[in-house]
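Entry for the shared binder. Reason: the reviewer on the internal report wants the predicted structure included alongside the sequence.
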Amino acid sequence: MFQIFTDTSANIPTADCRAQNIQVIPLYYYIDEEEHTCLDTDAFDGASYYAAIAGGKQVTTSQITPGHFVEAFEPHLAAGEDILYVAMAQRISGSYDSAMNAAEMLAEKYPERQIAVINTKGAGLGEGIPTLEAARCRDAGMDFAQTVAQVERCVRYIYQIFTVDDLNYLGRTGRCSNFTAFFGSALNIKPLLKGSDDGVIVTFEKARGRKKAIKMIVEHYAEAVDHPENQTIYISHANCPDDAEALAAQLREAKAPREVRIIMHEPVTGAHIGPGSLALFFISGHNRDTGKDDFGYWA
């Protein structure tokens, strides 16, 4: 038996985590020095949160400590369960390294147990989709090793693309590796960003205006997606529901997926991408490890 863990960056609705027995470790954010988490997505008032940030409210965030991981993992190890933790990109957050430190400490105490920590090289639903894949594999009867292998395979094909209203949110925290490349808010230039193959955020294209940015996201989706009829694809937004609905409609028209789910972007990584951000997550045919289009994921 094994227990699946992720953290709140994965942006999986709380009801889905409960239904699929996914344990979620909270990341913390701070408003006026008051500590908050988002363990209940239904209770998260994203509209008010992102409006407050747009109005100048400062939000700070913190990574998960090794101690928090030990506290979460140890009861399951003591009960005879192995641990699979699906993590945010190592190069975006220190939480992955904290989990690895905790795993090393716990391995000494529970040498008969297995602990796998997976670097998704993503955030948001780029972390959430592999987590959901882990639950699917477990529920289909796969053992621990098979599930880990399949999740690692899933990670290699995740496509993450998004646009933001203001690159300053990413730039001030160093989350975007080429922050100045397309900065041009005065000219209504909207950057397109993606999770790179090595797990950092990069700007890679620019659009004049929001509608053009959404159209370009759809074009990249249509080119990259493989077997959309088998996929649930995800859109997350930082308080721009109309844009999210417009994106969903254009995706269905371009290459209709099995399902489109629209989700409010969770507050921790949301504080770094800023209000008005709009993101799309799906499985593509591109293998981020080999650099080749050698899909076969659905085989």
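Summary line for the report: The radius of gyration is 19 Å.
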